[in-house]
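Q: Predict the assembly, please.
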Amino acid sequence: MSTTLQFDQIRLPGECDALRQEVRTFLSEEIAKGTFDPYRPGHGDSHDRDFSKRVGAKGWIGMTWPKKYGGQERSFLERYVVTEEFRVANAPVRSHFVADRQSGPILLKYAPEHIKANILPRICQGELCFVIGMSEPGSGSDLFAAKTKATKVDKGWCINGSKIWTSNANIADYMIALFRTSLLTNANRRHGLTQFLVDMKTRGIKVNPIYQMSGQQDFNEVVFEDAFVPDDHVLGEIDGAWKQATSELAYERSGPERFLETFYLMLELIRATGSEPDTRSAEGLGRLAAQLHTLRRMSVSVAGMLQAGKEPVVEAAIVKDLGTVWEQNLPNRVRELTAFLAPEIANRVTLEEQLAFATTIAPKLTIQGGTTEILRGIIARGLGLR
Amino acid sequence: MPADQPSASPHHGSLQTVAGKRKTPIVTNDSDHIVTASAARIFADLADPQTVNRLNNGSWKGPFWLALADAGLPLAWVPEQLGGAGATLAEGFAVLGVAGRFAVAVPLAETLLAGWLLARAEVAAPNGPMTVAPSRPADRIIFDKDGTLSGSAIGIPFASEARHIAVLAHGDERVVVALVAASDCTIGKGQTLAGDSSNVVCFERVKPLRYARAPLDLDHTALMLMGSVSRSVQTAGALESILSLSVSYANERVAFERPIGKFQAIQHNLARLAGETAAALAVSGSAANTMTQSDSFDEAAFLEGASAKIRCAEAATHGAGIAHQVFGAIGFTKEHILHRFTLRMLAWRDDFGSESYWAAELGRHVGRRGADEFWPMVASR
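A: Predicted assembly structure:
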């Protein structure tokens, strides 16, 4: 076995306690003034620019980035606290979360200085929404089958093709996209893709909505017809984007958002089974609590190892595999555990609404951001099986 | 079986030396590493699973125990002034992790726990193998007014091989920790799934060799939690070995003209096994770390200890199933060592409270605290 699994015992440092209190106070004030309803996930609009600006004003977007780009130079563990508290409260983070988690860090690493100076501070202020342009109609998990083409022209690149399943493209300001700049080679089928920063207002870009089975609409098809992207919007090495992708994925895969997506059901389950749950309810609740605690300890550990400069790639893939399967199964576990409760329980309506919503979004949880099958392939490679 | 007196020969890396330099329980990876390396060397030399499995008798146990005692491992959790090696809790848990990796079939964990229990009440520990009673949540031993112990406890691991038993007993107004000679008790027959002895122990007005009042926070639940965390750490170790054995086998075993590890179905099963192993490592490590950081059995210890036992037992169930499926028929033979790990960790599920027991306890606690307190409790760890 080439990999030894390692989970350092990381506890959130003391300075996180005050930050957590500050975040909770902020969120309860936002709830009090009606910005969002924590009991109704998925209702209304989960993106709220004004809310994102207030979050930015608190310094909680891009908080690990250098101060000269608007960041706070705080630790990944502090960011972890903010992320988990927002997620648990069902706060509307949609318009800033992708930029905070992955687009900003990519720009920090690969964008030219004048672009960093222009864009990163605006992300930190909650003004910009980013999308990820990876999947295409013929290329989902098989990223390297991407065909959307960037052709070299004077002072830039001309883009033709389409991206699909791009969440938030209808509201986004920028996309970080993978385009084909060369054909793949026999020696390396990962060769030939380049990462670009794309202004969504560029002429030749059209966004078509795709409605989801849950009744939400954040999926889109994005069509590029001779869309021009200037040279200084190339991110990193031409034809070498695959080398850039892998290290960042550990951040994307191991965060608290990978097991807290249906967390609200835990709280409604506790309310439904009451202060003296019967043995069946208590056992079910206890197992779920133990599993959740385990996932969180794993996730915090990966965050701490990343902060310490380690590369826990396999551990991060495991967190996402276990976490998304857990949050996906949670609706049915809650349904089973509440099956015999009296019909007059006080939170019946909320519970049923949440169950209906969580059940309809559950299928996507093990697909988005790397399917279960892709993750298990990565884990198998780490074990020395590939 | 094992010898009573540790020999004086100093040839194994001595835990006493390592631990004796440190008076405060500060965890450093370096000291853990020295202790575990020394333990691993003894296990590999004298209790190699392949050799032990082939011998099919207990002849290896005597020399093995002697070496463990030489290195101060069985009484690692007993301070020097009470007759032990005075190692930290962290060092002891690290040894148990390695013991799990070797599926060690002598009462090392039990003697560690017994020593810990005695030490908490400042009762001096004897040499030789020990075990603890009770080891199931429903059992209670009574400490009578005349200073004797009564009652019975089931599933006491290695009771028939232990020289002494450390007992947590309940009197009218106090909880005591007592040391009794195993020969003063009635010990029934019985064994675990893995063939290790596991016995009903009856105390019929047994007079302890010595006893003392337990500290206030050391109650029945505390003993069950400490035992549970120990079993969880052992389980995670066993899973590490099972994963390693399974991956090696999948890379070697050829079927349909290629190593079975090249088939995606096998790869995904092994990835799931890695997931269960990872979960067990993380949660047992977290619980052991919690016990190490805090002297009191508070809500944190309960949440961590119960969660570790629940999740590690689940991992044992799922992990054993996946590993046996990968190995096929050969892994089902007595000759193969896989069962040494799988059956042992499946048996450990039932010691010091099963996953169902702890889940119901944890669920009731969560219910009592209410929905609004649930997230703060999880986030506090």
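Chain A touches chain B through 55 residues (CB under 8 Å). The first strand of chain A starts at residue 130 and ends at 133.
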